[in-house]
Design a protein that fits this description.
heterodimer, A: about 110 residues, mainly beta, six-stranded mixed sheet, globular, B: about 110 residues, four-stranded antiparallel sheet, about 0% helix
Chain lengths: ~110, ~110
Amino acid sequence: GQNIDQPTEMTATEGAIVQINCTYQTSGFNGLFWYQQHAGEAPTFLSYNVLDGLEEKGRFSSFLSRSKGYSYLLLKELQMKDSASYLCAVRANQGGKLIFGQGTELSVKP
Amino acid sequence: GAGVSQSPSNKVTEKGKDVELRCDPISGHTALYWYRQSLGQGLEFLIYFQGNSAPDKSGLPSDRFSAERTGGSVSTLTIQRTQQEDSAVYLCASRITDTQYFGPGTRLTVL
């Protein structure tokens, strides 16, 4: 079967660092994606990992370990506007559908 | 440049009616996907079009759901004889390389 797990909710303080974990068990693997979704809006692309290691993009970094079926999204210097749902998704084969976790609702407090 | 657009943004219908949801992908994107997001649930894959290949319909929940893509561009998702459990946000995405870009969605409410 296909299973992607991430925490339902997290709370962090403005200016701090937060790590959102994602574990997956899928029948195939051809990349892991992170999206940000503000309430009532479309998911927007944040990052893509297909090889093991860390990808850094400004305040956002994403890590992948294929052998452990594990990824995390790291957000630094948190801002209030980072309050959103963060979606972890796995692509099982090239070009194919994304399998999403339930999303992690992040609340950033002053 | 223009992103993925969807219409209508909101649709309220009565149980048993048919609805059509439209997606205009980013120009030049060859792949198009439909997902739905029910309240408190993750995004659920419905159907995928890639060029002239047969679509991947493996996510359609019942035969009341169908979709077509005309001329390799615009797509329409049709739900026949709507049920209350069809209430959700229906999201369309298009892709040219690795990344899928999502439209704003259509919020469907079935009364």
